[in-house]
Task: structure prediction
Amino acid sequence: DIEAKQSSLLTTHGLRLISISPLPGEIVVGVARPQRQVVSLWDVWGRREINRNAAGVNTSFVLGLKELDGDILYLNLGGPFAGGQQHEPHTLVAGATGSGKSVLIQALLLDIAATNSSDLAHIHLIDPKMGVDYAAIERLPHLQGGVIVDQARAVEVMEGLVTEMERRYELFRSKGARDIRAFNSKVGLSERLPYVFLIHDEFAEWMLTEDYKSAVTSNVSRLGVKARAAGMHLIFAAQRPDANVMPMQLRDNLGNRLILKVASVGTSEIALGVKGAEQLLGLGHLAARLSGEPAIIYAQAPFLSDDDIDAAVDAIISSDKDNVSSPLKR
Result:
């Protein structure tokens, strides 16, 4: 039993096991290296492919490099891509302080904006920490109404998404379209609907307020699986998404799990569904449990310095002003 030998391998051979992945016909064991590779967002962007649909929207976003083979791991929200399956429409991100959670979220936000013009992708960003991590991100033309920092406004935005989703279904019916992709291919450029991404960082802090917890759970449940066809995607993030702040109803709707290092086995079992995330190395080391994939995928998320973020935002703004579909030319 490999798990039973972890302590022996560490004390006798200096080998720290960080992941054990059963695959068909083999078991892959991850061992911590003395020096870890830094994954540059620029290098990943230079290699990435873009999953653009008929309306020009990219729906596959970079998460990092897979530990097993170094290939790019994508979050596929619009269909199978790059060897990966179509994933659930909504996502939970979890990770303790130092795990790289905020950097992963910023990389995701930048990738959404870098691969989609602001008329095709709208972003709503909720942050109870007053937006201090997102000063540069707030300059993106894709961001709707700045960073949302109070509960009342956050509830208003989520309720607005539910209303907009229902409005979109009426539009689809009027055009004989089954989803946003079909609708956008049937109408002129001026009538095309943007995809909508709502990112709620540190949601656990506000979920201790009963009224807010009730409103979030209700609105996320109403969006549920219907939101994908309407082009709406939720990403919720927390350091500790424990049971008291993440009811089962909410947990079930956040089907994709992007889990960085967490503080305990219990948090790993809630966030990832199994133990093991407490063994991750921090600084962007990621366990991804994505619907349709046969096993948990371990990856290293890209590193972003403040200068990198500023440079990326500048490039995105410049590209968007020029009405270029993306600063990523590939």
Notes: Residues 7-15 have pLDDT under 50 and may be disordered. The chain is about 35% helix and 20% strand. The longest strand covers residues 17-23.
